[in-house]
Amino acid sequence: MTVTPLGIPRRLLEFTLDGEPVRAPEGSTILDACRAAGKDIPTLCEGDTLTPKNACRVCVVEVEGSRTLVPACSRKAEAGMEVRTGTERARHSRKVVLELLASSVDLSTTPRVAEWLKEYEAKPDRFGPDVARLNEEPRVDNDLYVRDYGKCILCYKCVDACGDQWQNSFAISVAGRGFDARIAVEHDAPLTDSACVYCGNCIEVCPTGALSFKSEFDMRAAGTWDESRQTRTTTVCAYCGVGCNLTLHVQDNEIVKVTSPHDNPVTHGNLCIKGRFGYQHVQSRD
Question: Which pTM was predicted?
Answer without folding.
Answer: 0.89
